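Posting for a labmate who doesn't have an account.
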Amino acid sequence: MESNFSCKGQLLRDELMSKHTSWRVGGKADNFYIPADLNDLKQYLKCIPNREDISWVGLGSNLLVRDGGIRGHVIATVNALKEITLCSDGFVYAQAGVTCSKLAKFCIQQGLAGADFMAGIPGTVGGALAMNAGAFGSETWSFVAQLEMITRQGELINRMPKEFNFSYRQVSQFDSEWFSAAKFRFTAQRKGHSSNIKQLLKQRNDSQPIGLPSCGSVFKNPQGQHAAKLIEAAGLKGYHHGHACVSDKHANFIISNTKTSAKEIEGLVALIQETVKQKFDIKLETEMRVLGDEL
């Protein structure tokens, strides 16, 4: 960090990432920064030397941080990049730290339809944009109208969806640019329309191990297949690898506890992939991001 560093946010040294991931595992981040707002984030980025790495975390719900921790800088967006507003052009502007559930509720309050599915995504707008997150048959990028990117020099760049390649749980990235916000296009609710968020969340809660430490779905669904069904058919539902285990409620979830290490989770992921490949000749690809160093 350059000597002229004077930002308004909170800088934590050697911060345990297990505090910031939904698996509750992960080693220490050298520098963990919670910006005060977007302008403060711009200033912080300007102070980071080009040789030092930058990582981002929202709710940490799609993230495995290895036990050796993360070198460089981790920037937290939750409770920092939290602006959400209805624009004069009818689009919804939401910054990267806004939770997907908050975006869904905001749209209902504004009389907009189409965002209900986002209540089922346990992450932030930034994470949903980075991986084209989806739930209940809908995906984030189907509703993106414009992107706001931030560079490592702290500059903002507006981009259009056509500048990106996006598909199922995958989005192309520009070098040294990250999603700071987006404008979304949702439609006005029809007369008599009511939200089905409660119904969708009940459906999710009935089928998934909500409330237990996990990252959500670990694997992408292969074309025409369901990862959970393949894992269950391979005999791995409820399987334990050290202190990590495959959920006995939904086989595409890996559950941790207070003794679980990131290495155990990564080992279980590899074991599942190997077993499914051997039994069905199908390669399971992960949805989660893996960051940091091994011990």
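Reply:
Got it, the structure tokens are right above this. Residues 31 and 73 are 5 Å apart (CA to CA).
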